[in-house]
Amino acid sequence: MNQPLLVVDEVSKSFGDVKALHNVSLTIKEGDIIGLVGSNGAGKTTLLRLLSGVYRPTSGLVSLSDGSDIATVRHAVGVVPENTGLYSRLTAWENIRYHARMQGVDDSEAWRRTLYFSKFLGMEDSLQRHTKGFSRGMRQKTALLRALAHAPKVLLLDEPTAGLDVTSARTVRELVKQLGEEGGTVIYSTHQLTEAERVCNRIIIIHNGEVRADGTPQELLEITGAPHLEEAYVTLTGDAARQRHEDDKPLKGLSKWWRSIFTPKLPAEVLEDE
Amino acid sequence: MSKAFHRVKVIAKKELVEFVRDWRTIVAILVIPLLMFPVLFILFPLLLASEAAELDAMTVDVVVQSEGMPEDLGLQFNASNMNITFETLPVLDLLSQPGQDDERLRNGSVDLVVRLEANGSLIDYAMIYMSTSEQSLEARSRAFAVLSEWEQNETINRISEAGLDPNETLDPLRWEGDVGQSDVATQGEQAGMALSLFIPLVLAVWTFSSAIQPSIDMTAGERERGTLEALLALPATRMELLMGKWLAVATITGAGVLLQVAGLLFAIGYLASSNFISVPEVSIAALALLCLAILLFAVMVVAFELALAMRSHSVKEAGSILGPAVLLILFPALFTQVINLDGIETYWFAIPVVNVLLALRELLMNRIVGLHIVTWILSSGIYALGAAWYAARQFKREDIVTSLS
To answer: What is the CATH number of domain A4-249?
Structure first.
C-alpha cells in the first residue's frame, strides 16, 4: 500500500467574510495522480496554494506525513501556477536554474533533470531562448521543467492544459501519466472532468469551498449511482456555484463613489430612469 | 554560507540580471545621471555663452525721440552699436506712455523707443520696449549702457564745475586691498559651502527617484505579471525575498548615485581648471560619514518604496503612488537648503529626510559636530528600521499572491 505523503487536516481558509475553503480533510499518498475538479471559484486554486504553503490555513494544518508544516518544507513540492510565472527577460534555462538554486539544488543536478524531462517535452532546443516569445504551450512546458528540477515529492499543477493547443495539452498529460507510472505524486486542477478521467487515478470534486467527493472514477460512479462521470459531477454539485471571491475585494468609500461617476449605467437602467 | 544568505544572493542576482538586460532602464537610471552634471555644468554655460555672442552680434533698431537732448548724448547714441533714428518727441502726459509707438514695437519694425526731454538742469527719460522680445530687451540693455555712460560723465563734469574732486565726492568710503584675500575661508571651504547648497538636494531626490522604477518592477511588476506565486512557493521566507529585492534595488540606486557623483566630480574638475570653482575640502572622516548618511537614507528610501510598491496591485497603481511621493523628499530638501547651519538646534537632525540632508550639508562644509552626528545616525537608523519593518509587513501580506493577470 502506498505511503501517505501530505495530510490536509480539517483545513479552512477565509478571505474576510468569505469562506473559500471549509473544513477540508485529505490524505495524499505516494503515486496519487489527483484530479482536482470544480467550477470557477470552487476553491481549487486556494487549496493548491495551501498545499504549496503560499497561503496559511485560517484553521487546520497542511503537513507532510511526518507532521512537519508544509510552510517549512516547501522543497517537497513543485508548483506550476495557472499563469506559469516565467520571467520574460530570462531564458528558459535561467528560469529553471533560478528556482533550482532557490531550492538549494546545484546547477549540474538541475541541468541533468531538466535535460531528461525536456527531451520528453521536446524543449531541448528552446532552453537557451528568452521566454518572452514563447507560446502558451512552451511557457507551460518550461514551468513544468522548472517545477521538476528539484525532484519534488509532490507536483502541484493549476489548470496545466488551459489554453494549450491539442498537441501541447497531450504532451503535458502524457508527462503527468509518466510521472504517475514512475511513482510520482501529482495534484492536477482542472475544469474538465474528461481530462481528469483520462489522466488521474483519483478525483476530488470541490464545490463552493467543500470537498463533495473523493475517490477513483469508479468509486464516484458508485457513490452517485450515475452512468458516467459528468452525471456524477452534476449530482454532486447541484447547488448554484458561487462567484470567485479570493481576489475580488469590493470597492469601498471614496473609491466606490469615484468609480461610479465614470461608470455608465446599463441601457435598461437608463430607460428605467427616463 | 547560510542557506538564507544564499537565497538572498540568488534573488538579488536574478533581479540584477533582468535589470541589465533592459537597455532602456540602463539609460534612464545609469547613463542619464552620469551625464547630467557634465551637461549642466559644461555644455549649458557653453550654450549660454554662444547665445550671448549671438545677442551681441544682433542688429537692433532704436528710435530716439527727444526735445532738448544734449548734443554729446546724441553723438554717443550715434557711436553705439545700434541703428539709431532720431525723431521729435510726441506730445504725451508722461514719457512712459507707449502711445502711437505700441504698434511698431509689436510688429517688430522698431525694437526700442528712447524718449528724452530737457527739464531745467535735468533730463527726463523713458524707454518703451517689449519684455517678451529678446531683440527689444537687448536694445534696451544697449541704450541703458549709453545713458549710464553719459550720466557718469555728466556727473563728473558737474562735480568738477562745482570745484569738488569727483573721486572723493563719489567714493568717500574705499576698500583697501584685495577683497578675496580678506576672507579667512579657503577656496576649498567656499566650494564646499557652494556645493552643499545643491548636492544634498540632488543626491536625495535622485536616490528616491532612481529607486522607483526597479522597486515597482520587482514588486508590483512581479505581481502583475503573475511571477510572484511561483516565487512565494519556494523555500525562501518573505523576509529573504524582501532582502534580496532590497539588495538589488539598493545596488541599482547606489550605482546610479555613484555615477551621478562621478559626473559631478568630473564637472567640478573641469570648472576648477577654469578657476570657476575649487575642489571642496572634505576630510576623510567627513567623507566616510557622508557615505554612511547616504547609505542609511538609501536603506530607508528603498525599503519604503518597496513597501509602497508591494501594496499596489499593478504597475500603474504603484506608479501613481510613488511618482508623487518624490514630493516627500523634494519639499524637505528645498526647505533644508534655507536652514542656517550656524547655531542650528540639534532637533533638526532628528527629523526624517531633513536630518540626512542637513548632515550632508554639514559634512560637505567639513563640519563634524559630534552631537549632530549621533542624532542623525540614531534617528536615521530608527527610520530605516521602521521602513524595513513596514516593508516586511507588506511582503508578509497574503494577498500579494493575487495578480491582475
So the answer is: 3.40.50.300
